[in-house]
Amino acid sequence: IVCLFLSAILLSACVIAAGCNTDKNESGSAIVWSALSTEKYMRDKTPETYTEAKLDFVGVKGETQSMQLMLTAKKDIKGFNLTAGELSGENGAKIDVSAIKIYAERYVEIYNPYLNWHHGGIYYSDAGFYPDALVPIEKYRLTREDRVAEGNNQGIWIDIEIPLSAAHGEYAGEFTLELNTDTDSPETMKIPVTLKVYNIEMPVEVHAASCFNIWWDQLGFGEGDNYDANTNQVYYDYLLSKRLCSGDVNPDYTKDMATFTDYIVTLAQNPKVTCYRIPDSLTGFDKNAIVPQTEGIYTAEQVEAARQQLQTGLENQLAVMLEKNFELRDADESSDLDLFAKAVYYFEDEPTIGYRTQRVRVFCEKLRAAKDTLLTRYADEFEKYPDIKESFDGLNNITPSNYVDESLFVSSKNGPDEPYEPDYEKSDGLTHWCPEMYKWSETAFRETVEERMSYGEEFWWYTCVVNSPAPSYYVESMPINIRLASWMQYQYGVTGTLYWDVVQWKGIEGGDPYEDVQYNEYGGGEGILLYPGAKYGQKTPVSSIRLEQIRAGQQDYEYFYMLDGYLQENGIDCTAAEIIAEMGKTLYTGTTTLETASYAEFEENRIKILDILQDFVNGNKSAAESKIDAVLN
Question: Which among 58, 57, 94, 97 has a CA at the least distance from the CA of 198?
C-alpha cells in the first residue's frame, strides 16, 4: 500500500545534489539555490541543505526546458529581479535573451488540503502557501509583489525556449540576481547558467492527444473588462502553445455547421491540434427523450421520434463536413486534408449505470446508422478518397466513464433480451474509451484495457478529482506526479488525456483564483490550470506550475514517440514502453507515484532517453543498444 505524504517530500534534504557550501550561495539577505522544475517548495518549508546557485538546462531543439532559482530570505527582502544574459556556445553559437522567459512564482493558500482515500491508503497534504501562478517577473515587480518575508522562500521560474535553429552543443552564460532593489542597499549576485542542446528536434506535430476543455462562459468571471472579441481565440491558441488542445473549439464558430466546418479546416491542418469536438447540440434532438430518466414522461412515439431526429441530425451535420472535405480535396489533388481524423463526439459526461449509459448506447447506435447511410450515399467519393473513409468510419464518441463493460456496448448477438455478447465485427458500440486515470493502478483493469485494445479500440484517460494523490492537478500535489503521467500514458498505450476545464473561475468569490483556488471540497486548483491575465494587465492568460508540468510531460511523450520510430527503423526487438516500464519501477506503480520517487532519478532517466536518441541520430546503433541493455538488464 502506497501512502504519499507531500510534506515528507517538501522537507526532504535536497536530492539533486549534495549539500553545497552555502557561503557561495548567500548574499546579505538571502540564501540562493536551484531546484529542478519537478520540485515544489512551500513558502515556509525549506530543505536542510541547499544546492548550488547554478542553473543547468538540458534539452532538444524546439522544446522549452525549465528550472527554478530559489531564494530563502535571511531577512525581509524588498524587491527582487532576475535578468537573463545571452548564452554562448562553440563557434559563435548563441542563445539570445529573447528565448529566455523569467517568471515570479506567486503563492496561494491551501487552507483545506485534500484528504484522499484511494488506492488503499491515506494521503495528507499540508495546509499553507504553495507556489503556482507564474507571473512575468516584470509584471510582478510593477505590482510591488516582489517582497519576501524573513524565513520564507520565493521561487523564480526560468524557461529557455530552445530554437529549432539552435546549434547543438554546450552553452554557458550568467544571469543577474538583484535583491532589495527598492532599498538604498541593493545586492547583486551572478548566477552561472549552462545549457546542453542535443542534436535532436522536437516534432512540431503533437502525438499525444488532449482535450483540456475551456469553459468559455467562465472567462468573463476572471478577465472582467479585459474580456474582448479576441479573448476566446487567445486562450485557445495559448493552450496550443503548451502542446495542449481544447476539444471545445472557440464558440464563435459553433453557431451552425457551415461555420464550424469552415473553421475546422484550419484546425485539421494544424499539427498542434489533436482533437475537436463536433457540436452534437446542432442536431436539434431532445436529449432527455432518447432515453427518459423516468418512465412515463415521454410516450413511446416521442422517444422514437427523438431518436430518429438524432440520427437525421447526425447525418445532416456529418454530410456538411463530408461535402466540404470532398470539395477541398477535389480542388487540390495534392491535399491530404481530413476533417475526421481529429474529430470526436462528446455526448454524455460521466454517465452512471442506468438511463445515462443507455443514452450513450443509443447515441452510438444512431451514429453507426448515420455513418452507414452516408457511406452508401457518398460511396463514389469514398472510393476516390479511402483515407477519409477510414477516418470517417472510425469516428466515435468519447465518454469519460469507468464502465469498460457491457453497459456501454450496443450489439448483442443473441438479441436484446438475451445475455450480453458483444459483436466486435460490427464495431457499433463505444470504441473510444476514457476511464479515470487511477483505474490503471488495478492489475485486472489493465488486463481489461489490453483485451479491448486487441480489438483495435482506443483508450484515453480522464484526469479528474478522484485521482489524488498521484497523479492529480491539485496545487498541493507534487509536480513529479503530473510529470510522470505522460510516462505512464506511453507505457500503457493510452493515446490521449481528457480534462474537464482549465478556467473554472465562477465558483470563486470575486472570480479571483490568485487569492483562492478552493471553491469546492476537492483539492486546490481543481479545474483551474490558467489564471486570468487581467490582474497583470495582459491579454494572454498566466500559466501555472501545474500546467507547465503537463507541457513538459507532452514533450517527454515525444521523446518516446521518436524512440519507438528509431527502434523499429533499426530492427531492435524492444519498445519504448518496455524501456519506460523498467525506468518507472522505482518511480511509480500502476498510476501511483511512489513516496520514494526521486527528482534526481527522474531527471537522470530523461537524460538517458536523450542519450539513446542522440546515438540513433548519429547512426551509432551499437551505442544505443548498449545503453538500452543497461536499462533493461
Answer: 58
pLDDT digits (tens, 9 = 90+) for 244-294: 999 999 999 999 999 999 999 999 999 999 999 999 888 888 889 999 999
User: CA–CA separation, 286 vs 292, rounded Å?
Assistant: 10
Taking residue 456's Cβ as centre, other Cβ atoms within 10 Å add up to: 10
8 A C-beta contact, residue 556 and residue 489: no
Grid cell for residue 405: 463493460
pTM surpassing 0.85? yes
Q: Decide: helix, strand or coil at residue 32.
A: strand
Residue 380: CB atoms within 10 Å: 8
- pLDDT tens digits for 572-611? 999 999 999 999 999 999 998 888 889 999 999 999 999 9
User: Which long-range contacts link 187-193 to residues 24+ away (Cβ below 8 Å)?
Assistant: 187/27, 187/28, 187/29, 189/27, 189/32, 189/53, 191/32, 191/53, 191/54, 191/55, 191/69, 191/82, 192/53, 192/54, 192/55, 193/54, 193/55, 193/56, 193/57, 193/85, 193/87
**1 burial class (0-12, 13-18, 19+ CB within 10 angstroms)?**
exposed
Matching residue, cell 520510430: 565
pLDDT tens sequence across 435-452: 999 999 999 999 999 988
**pLDDT greater than 50 at residue 339:** yes
Q: Where are the alpha helices (DSSP H) in 30-181?
A: 137-142
Sort 18 into a burial class: Cβ within 10 Å, 0-12 / 13-18 / 19+.
exposed
Taking the C-alpha atoms of residue 245 and residue 457, their distance in angstroms, rounded to an integer, is: 22
pLDDT in tens, 500-512: 999 999 877 777 9
Q: Is 392 helix (H, G, I), strand (E, B) or coil?
A: helix
* Local structure of 11: helix, strand or coil: coil
What one-character DSSP code corresponds to residue 295?
T
| pLDDT of the residue at 118 | 43
